[in-house]
Amino acid sequence: MWDERYAAEGYLFGTEPAAFLPREAGVLPQGARVLCLADGEGRNSVWLAGQGHRVTAMEQSPVALEKARALADARGVTVEFCQSGIEGWDWAQPFDAVVGIFIQFAPPPLRARIHQGIARAVMPGGLVLLHGYAPRQVSYGTGGPSNPENMYRLEDMRTDFAGWQVMRAEDYDTEISEGRGHSGRSALVDFIARKPGQVA
Fold first, then answer.
1. What CATH number does residue 12 fall under?
2. Does this model's pTM top 0.90?
């Protein structure tokens, strides 16, 4: 399915990062090791690399990865692109931060396992930055999956990252324009939290 969506001409979600990222990326330490989950055509990982971070981007679709590599080349940045499904990712690899933007293909049981993996991958003192849709997004029809169970609820996020220092947890509506895939009035959730422990 994703190969077909990404095969269309141009970039499905545009080439600029989700607005959440430049707005909130100041929490990242300089030169952070960052993992971008299911990063599609590379708009977020390439932007982070342009800010001086050491970025690994994981994506299942080879079609998307080809476009992501082309975008990185055009911007003159280096990203370690890895072809992998999020379910099969090796969470033992350590990162200063894990970024997940609109990764809402996962039903609740899988999402919980993904969050457990994120918690394992983030170093003590490191960060998780998640940005996606709230359940009411389904009625807006401006992007995202059709199943409200796939959407984010702040109470679930706090539960999945219990004991972490929550730095931002907001549920809000705004207009977005991110390529053909995300455009119009949108119900969004931002969640940023720091893992307990000292920064390495």
1. 3.40.50.150
2. yes
